[in-house]
Structures are given as structure tokens and as C-alpha cells.
């Protein structure tokens, strides 16, 4: 789940992560009011609604994964896991290495009130596209980057992070290649 940690690192830059994932925010907690997020330069995305059947399309990502990619070719691999808990909650895990079955961090992807979301204490992402083998998240608040997970085979997928230009930096993207280590 280091990809989730990588997402979290991007959240820290302008946001992070897929990412998003470290300290899950309680479901009952509300997003900051739109006027606060807009005043802070954070866009609030109007998300489409999904059903439990649609959420079930994420089952392809269940299992433990090794990720590589990002800036340069010398990046260390990272390790993540995803497990569907019920028809509206998926747990996400970060592992220190490929062999360690005990996660060093965890988070959630949830379906609540038709909205699929993930994030951490200060930032949230909502799914704006969910189909078999693909999900796309946009920042809801406290984040700037978007990310897409797309299945490329039963044992591989890509995570593509994109972020808009700022006054000092151009728009950009980063692709991580994920390969299955084991099924859950």
C-alpha cells in the first residue's frame, strides 16, 4: 500500500493519497463547508452516485500488490493490499515489504449515500468514474491531484496520478505499475 502512501505524499505536496490513505476520516464527519474550501483554493467536486453493485466492480483490486514507478527508474518498490469488507467498504493496507503480512498503515474506500470516497484527515477524494476494471478519483477537498486505477490484466494494474498546473509548476502526471503478489 505504499502507493497509498505515495498518494499521501502527493496530498502533502498539494495533497497525496490514492492516496490518500493513512488516517481514515470517520464517515459521519462532514467535509468543510464549500465557502471554506473555496476560500482555501480547494475545489469541491460534485460526485455522481453509485450502487453497491457498482462498488462491487472494485473486487478486481483485492489482494496484495507491489508497485513501481514514479520519478526516475531507481525508485524503491512499495507494497499495498486491498480487501473488500462488505458491499460498501474496502480496506486498504500499506506494507513495509513484500513478505510482511502485518500492515504498517491502513485506510478505507467507502460507499456512503451513493458516494464512493477515500482519503485522510485533511483531504478527501470522490470517485467520478467507476466501471469494471477502472476507477477515477477527483479531489473533493484538501487535495489537488486526481488519480485513476486501471486493470491491465488479472495480475496487473496501473495507478496514474495527475495534477493541474500552478502559478509556478506545470501540470503533470506519474504512472505506477502494480503487480500481484498474492490474492487474499
- For this entry, what is the oligomeric state of its chains? single chain
Shape, please? globular
Radius of gyration: 15 Å
Number of domains: 1
Q: How many helices?
A: 3
- Overall mean confidence score, pLDDT: 80
Corresponding CATH architecture = Beta Barrel
Overall CATH class: Mainly Beta
Q: From the helix content, strand content and strand pairing, which structural class follows? A: mainly beta
Give the strand order of the largest sheet, numbering strands 1, 2, ... along the chain. 1-2-3-4-5-6-7-8-9-10
CATH superfamily: Calycin beta-barrel core domain
CATH topology: Lipocalin
Low-confidence stretches: 1-42
Strand content: 35-45%
Q: In percent, how helical is the residue content?
A: 10-25%
Q: H/E series, N to C? A: HHHEEEEEEEEEE
Specify the biggest β-sheet: 10 strands, antiparallel, barrel
N- to C-terminal distance? 14 Å
- How many beta-strand segments? 10
Structure explained in plain terms:
This protein has helices at 2-15, 34-39, 52-55; strands spanning 63-69, 78-86, 89-95, 105-112, 115-120, 123-131, 134-141, 146-153, 156-163, 172-182. By secondary structure, it is mainly β. It has one domain (2-25, 39-182): Beta Barrel (Lipocalin), CATH 2.40.128.20. Strands 1-2-3-4-5-6-7-8-9-10 form a ten-stranded antiparallel β-barrel. A hairpin with a 2-residue loop joins strand 2 (78-86) and strand 3 (89-95). The longest helix has 14 residues, at 2-15. The model is unreliable at 1-42 (pLDDT under 50).
Amino acid at each position: 500500500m505504499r502507493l497509498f502512501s505515495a498518494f499521501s505524499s502527493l496530498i502533502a505536496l498539494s495533497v497525496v493519497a490514492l492516496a490518500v490513505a493513512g488516517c481514515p476520516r470517520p464517515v459521519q464527519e462532514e467535509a468543510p463547508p464549500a465557502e471554506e474550501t473555496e476560500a482555501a483554493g480547494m475545489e469541491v467536486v460534485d460526485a455522481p452516485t453509485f450502487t453497491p453493485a457498482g462498488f462491487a466492480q472494485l473486487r478486481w483490486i483485492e489482494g496484495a500488490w507491489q508497485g513501481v514507478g514514479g520519478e526516475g527508474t531507481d525508485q524503491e518498490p512499495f507494497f499495498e493490499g486491498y480487501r473488500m469488507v462488505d458491499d460498501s467498504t474496502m480496506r486498504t493496507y500499506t506494507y513495509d515489504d513484500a513478505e510482511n503480512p502485518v500492515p504498517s498503515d491502513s485506510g478505507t474506500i467507502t460507499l456512503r449515500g451513493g458516494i464512493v470516497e477515500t482519503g485522510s484527515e485533511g483531504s478527501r477524494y470522490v470517485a467520478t468514474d467507476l466501471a469494471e476494471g477502472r476507477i477515477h478519483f477527483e479531489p473533493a477537498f484538501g487535495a489537488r491531484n486526481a488519480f485513476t486505477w486501471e486493470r491491465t490484466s488479472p495480475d496487473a494494474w496501473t495507478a496514474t496520478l495527475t495534477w493541474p498546473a500552478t502559478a509556478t509548476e506545470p501540470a503533470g502526471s506519474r504512472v505506477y505499475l502494480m503487480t500481484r503478489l498474492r490474492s487474499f
